[in-house]
Amino acid sequence: MDIFSGLKNRSTSDSDSDDETADVTASINVLNVMASASKNVVLNQDIFPDFVEAASNMLNKTWGGVNDTVIHDMSATYLKSVEGLVKNVKVNNSREVSGLDTQNLKLDICSSTDCNVTVFDISVNLNKTSGIMKTFAVKNLMHKLKNNFPKTAATSLVLSATLEDNNDSVLDITLKFPREQLNSSKPLCVFWNTTKKEWSRDGCTLKTRDDNHTVCECNHLTSFSVLMAKSDISTDILDIITNVGLGVSICSLLIFLIIESLVWSAVVKTNLSHFRHTAMVNIAMFLLLADCSFLASTSPEDLSSTLCLVLTVCKHLFYLAMFSWMLCMSVMLVHQLIFVFSPLRKRVFMFLSSIVGYVCPILIVGSSYVYCKYTYKRYYDPKTCWLVFDRLLEGSVHAFLLPVGTVILTNLFSMVVVILTLMKSSATDGGKSDDKETAKSILKVVVFLTPVFGVTWIIGFFLLILDQGNPMFVVANYSFTILNSFQGLLILITGCVAEQKVREELLKLIMAKSRGKSESMKNLTSTAYTKDK
What we know:
Layout: H1 2-12, H2 17-37, E1 43-44, H3 48-58, H4 68-88, E2 89-90, H5 94-97, E3 100-101, E4 105-110, E5 114-119, E6 122-127, E7 132-139, E8 157-164, E9 172-178, E10 191-193, E11 198-200, E12 204-209, E13 213-218, H6 236-267, H7 271-296, H8 305-338, H9 346-374, E14 380-381, E15 386-387, H10 398-428, H11 435-453, H12 458-465, H13 471-485, H14 487-497, H15 500-532
Parallel strand pairs: 1-2
Antiparallel strand pairs: 3-4, 4-7, 5-6, 6-9, 7-8, 9-13, 10-11, 12-13, 14-15
Helix pairs in contact: 1-3, 2-4, 6-7, 6-13, 6-14, 6-15, 7-8, 7-9, 8-9, 8-10, 10-11, 11-14, 12-13
């Protein structure tokens, strides 16, 4: 409260034009720090009056003396900070906060099921079953934000609406903006992309318009990277990559399973090959089910609450089962390398693998759901149809991240053991060994085992560590989405195309089928010739 009181007094004081922008920049930086800190502490609603007045007074300044790029960065930081603080402040009584009105900023809070509020002539209507809607409108900011739409004139108002502690998967929200320029022939509905710091039309549509009002509706898809992120970090490009990648993966996995069924009896002749192909089939099957579940949930706003929950449970279960079978495969491989003269028996492998691959994922998913239900914590987010990340080691998503992290570390260790074994065997050969051949063998191990062991998912953990403002965050985001949405294609390539026995048996089947057709055609020709004769 002292900080915001000081900001309010500082923003109302007169200053020279040379120092004005510096004062505003310093005040915005304080807001930004407070917004970041408010994620980890509880801020009471008593700070709202001073905070709203201070934020409003900052917009009275001209922000002159600097170039447009600086002003664009300042305004983007201002909007992000104000949104963060409004969202994170705990509200005990919405009536005491609603209607906070200053010259440039107006705040309204609604906790009822039927919310119909108006902020600076912008009407917001929302029907919900639970939660608190926080809405604020800002004047004198639009012309400071970057306008990336040429030949357009910005309106004077910016609206922000957030909804907290809500479990509705489908929400009908109406935003009615006053028409300020009657001569405009084509109003655009846009939202502010905080990552790119620019406006975007993705998922936003113009519902109705007349001479007095413009009504907008927005919705957005969910990209693959949300599985390993703190929040929804999807963009239009990531959505396209996700949908294309999952479509290709699903087709690839179906082809892989069909090929495995055709060549199964021919390639599974030893215990080792049986272990490997059993694990590969289970990995492909559960990845196929998980990808189908994810593809079905890419538009959460079109799903009911029950269906969203079911798809969340399916994704949680199927991805964990996939990683569990990856763990079985890597442990089996290491066991065969270390205990060469003590091979696993088929019955022992199938018993242990069934427990790890089937029972453990069910126990993890079931216990996490029951825990969240009886501790009154959210198991899934209806906006993404995925698990919830609250903070470090808090949130249902850790029932996914911790097992996956454990499996990935184990599989990395297995890859290291395989590589060291190759290097050791080449060293014992002395001069007969070719270093180039050893390097090629190691490269093959890395290329073939990386998608099968799920090592590419390790990039997702960088999404949890990196800040969204870090340039490497974008690289990690796109890398994770591309590599893992196309994981089914990689498994088809490494499991079938690169497998010599599978290729040979598949080629035999094709040749036998073509030979059978050829003989059938010869018999038909011979019969026809005999009759004519």
